[in-house]
Amino acid sequence: MSANACEGDHILEVLSQTSTAVTAPPLDRALFPIVRHWSYCDHAAVGPLPRPTRDAMIAALDAQMIDGCSGILRMEERKTDVRSRVAAAIKAQPEEIAFMRSTSDGALLVANGLDWRTGDEVIASDNEFGANAYPWLNLRDRGVRVRLIRTPHERLSPQVLDRLYGPHTRLVAVSYVSFCDGFRHDVAAIGRWCRERGILLAVDAIQGFGALPLDVVSGNIDFCYFGTAKWLLSPQGLSVVFVRRDHIERLRPTTFSWRSVRAPMDFLDYAQELNPTAERFEGATINHPGLAAFGMSLDMLTHAGLGAIERHVLKLTDRLIRSADAAGIPVLSDRSVDARSGIVLLGAKGADSDSLAARARERHVGITVRDSGVRVSPHGYNNEDDVDAVISLLAEGGP
User: Fold this and answer.
1) Which three-class secondary structure state does DSSP give residue 298?
2) Is residue 221 within a helix (H) or strand (E), and if so which, with residue range?
3) Do the Cβ atoms of 44 and 176 come closer than 8 Å?
4) Which CATH number is associated with domain 3-49+306-395?
5) Which segments of the chain belong to CATH 3.90.1150.10?
6) Which of 85, 115, 191, 208 fits a disulfide with 219 by CB distance 3.0 to 4.6 angstroms?
7) Burial class of residue 85, CB neighbours in 10 A (0-12, 13-18, 19+)
């Protein structure tokens, strides 16, 4: 059985449970103050902070305010624990995890760190968010060819790759979930295809992980990166970068600085070797308050169960799609089983984007409105009322 079929069977099993009413959210709504005033389904843009996450960040700031250096050192000690927990969540090893600032940093690390040769090729899609596009496009002045798949006419898949790749194809870059329409790529199938041909796979997981599980081992992923401020319900200014152990030595640390070495507190020993783990890529001091907050949100998500969150989110998006059909609202996302994610793109039903966005803000309905459509992205604490509020807004049509 193909990896594509396995992924489809998994999602079909989840969707088979959507014929019944949406059950209680796996994430406790009481921990999300935003639900008091908003029907918030805009996690593909920014995830709201749960109260315990906000409190963890405040506690980290208070530690610095009250205890200065001692407070900072206590935060520093937590880094190892959070590194281990995020590694376990994505089936990686702690030494394969680096903390950086943003999703872009992960792509930039790989794009600028590999030993590219003139004529090398990168394959990607033409609808990638800029964080997973510009780092590769910037390689063109180094003689690297970037081949872009024309979406939505075709999607990045083993079948399409079979047609496009050649002897100089070096890397495939893909988003786990497309930011614009929620298309869920079969990363496991793509990863297997790449591994069989000795081609590297780089995955931008920011629009997937948190609402969907992520397994970098079964996915045969070489590099993976994701910011924490969307589906991971954490502050901006922090990201996670996975570098497969085999590739740590082959990447030039483009952010090489004082924390890249084995003993960074031995300040004047400039002859030190690099840290043997992915921590070498962090370079300098990370966002410790953001890390404390992320650690709290990660605990909440893993305690609820990423599988349970995925099932709940897919039930909500199934209700959204069925309700949109009933209301005559166009569904622009791919409906096929193996393409479903936490993001659904709907048509605006005659409303111009500016007026619809204004009405959404007035009613406190959290969605992203663009000329290309209305992006709806519920999470594990949302309920049926939140989805129904979106449909009620869109069903009104034009201004």
Assistant:
1) helix
2) none
3) no
4) 3.90.1150.10
5) 3-49+306-395
6) 191
7) middle
Q: Mention every residue, 6+ apart, whose C-beta is less than 8 A from residue 30.
A: none
**What would the pLDDT profile of 73-95 be if each residue is shown by its tens digit?**
988 889 999 999 999 999 999 99
According to the model, what pLDDT value does residue 23 have? 83
Q: Which amino acid is at 331?
A: V
66 Cβ partners below 8 Å, 6+ apart? none
DSSP 47: P
Q: HSE of 175 in the Cβ direction (CA atoms, 13 Å)?
A: 27
Residues of the chain with CATH 3.40.640.10: 52-303
Instruction: Give the pTM.
Output: 0.93
Per the CB < 8 A criterion, the answer to whether 251 and 243 are in contact is: yes
**Cβ(221)–Cβ(203) below 8 Å:** yes
Output the six-digit token pair for 383: 């309920």
Percent share of the chain, pLDDT over 90 = 90
Question: For domain 52-303, which architecture applies?
Answer: 3-Layer(aba) Sandwich (3.40)
Residues in the chain: 399
- CB count in 10 Å sphere of residue 394: 28
Q: What is the pLDDT of residues 181-213, one digit of tens each?
A: 999 999 999 999 999 999 999 999 999 999 999
